[in-house]
Amino acid sequence: MSAAPLDLLLLPTWLVPVEPAGVVLHEHGLGIRDGRIALIAPRTEALKQPALEVRELPGRLLAPGLVNAHGHAAMTLFRGLADDLPLMTWLQDHIWPAESKWVDEAFIRDGTELAIAEQLKGGITCFSDMYFFPAAASELVHKSGIRAQITVPVLDFPIPGARDADEALRKGLELFDDLKHHPRLTVAFGPHAPYTVSDDKLENIRVLAEELDAGIHMHVQETAFEVQQSLEQHGVRPLARLARLGLLGPRFQAVHMTQVDDDDLAMLVESNSSVIHCPESNLKLASGFCPVERLWQAGVNVAIGTDGAASNNDLDLLGETRTAALLAKAVAGSATALDAHRALRMATLNGARALGLDEQIGSLEIGKAADLVAFDLSGLAQQPVYDPVSQLIYASSRACVEHVWVAGKTLLDNGQLTRLDEQRIIANARAWGARIAGRA
Ligand SMILES: CSC[C@H]1O[C@@H](n2cnc3c(O)ncnc32)[C@H](O)[C@@H]1O
Ligand SMILES: [Zn+2]
């Protein structure tokens, strides 16, 4: 019995599978059936397969969709609200007061939709969200067709949507239950940071995460001040405290890690934890520099995230990856640090691995979900093309993102969102901006 026809056959000039590492396939086709990658073959072979639709992509590079491994989606509505400030002033004097005044379910819906639209237009097919009202954010993920890890926010103090940590966890457990069979949504725990979550709550989270085999996503060692404060209050560095509480492990996602000493490195390696690097947020808040090359060479899985739009100020993962590649060289004092191919791997497969999704997404392999992005490398400023991955990382912007598919569904077609109304999203964001700025 012959196989059913492909739903879609894509014929790009370059196909970058990411796994195996460093490979660029010229003039190959990728076939999709039932939302999964069903075929990767030289163009002439691929064209022999019956397909319901064939799409020529000349001058385009087809790659796995980008994975934004850390962000606060609805903070798009606070973009530019408090710039040019150090982390704790930014957070305590500006962002937390604004959040307690403005963040409700409607804010989360409009801000998350704006974030999803911006991310899809930038080639992101999967993002991690650490923000309030996670059930409302999940609804937008469901509706838009994108893929996401939604985290359950936990802090020692009241937050929008939960009077205390117990209520946040109770609602979070309901979300785990509601979404346990969802094809594109996973839920993880999101304790904010070692300085805002006490030991008893972290212990609770460890037990629940073990029971549910769930990820734990947390800001860790974002600044030298945080490390100093932990030494004074707990007698150990934050990561050592988390290790003592049993939180580290393959499902632990340590966001930022600008401070890494030899003991921290050994703990990350031994526990097989992931680090999520957010270079532009770290630069803008002057938080410090994550030693990406040192972590990578030691065998730590390093992924990349934009952080929220209030500290970046965009959700542009391609731009973030370029910043990471350049910064890694300066930090390591070596021009060979984080080369373009490894930078792309960090933005795809490593992100998938950090979120526990590397069996499903992150590379172009038969059987994986068809989460893909086609970049247009035919522009003037990208010529000539010697190495398309180098051109993508060092000479392209997110404006070259042309098409995006998630689980085989077209979510961006010729730069146009297929399921979201861009003009309505812009109008909603403007209305929030006017309200927050006191003009409405
Ligand atoms: C439940 S976590 C959401 C919480 O985190 C705040 N936040 C955003 N960016 C950062 C950052 O870089 N470090 C620490 N905290 C951050 C956000 O405003 C929410 O209050
Ligand atoms: Zn963050």
TrEMBL record:
EC numbers on record: 3.5.4.28, 3.5.4.31
InterPro entries recorded: Amidohydro-rel (IPR006680), Deaminase_MtaD/DadD (IPR023512), Metal-dep_hydrolase_composite (IPR011059), Metal_Hydrolase (IPR032466), MTA/SAH_deaminase (IPR050287)
Cofactor field: Zn(2+)
Residues binding substrate: E99, H192, E222, D307
Keyword Protein transport: no
Keyword Ion transport belongs to the record: no
Family: Belongs to the metallo-dependent hydrolases superfamily. ATZ/TRZ family.
Function summary: Catalyzes the deamination of 5-methylthioadenosine and S-adenosyl-L-homocysteine into 5-methylthioinosine and S-inosyl-L-homocysteine, respectively. Is also able to deaminate adenosine.
NCBIfam families: PRK09045.1
Descriptive protein name: 5-methylthioadenosine/S-adenosylhomocysteine deaminase
Gene designation: mtaD
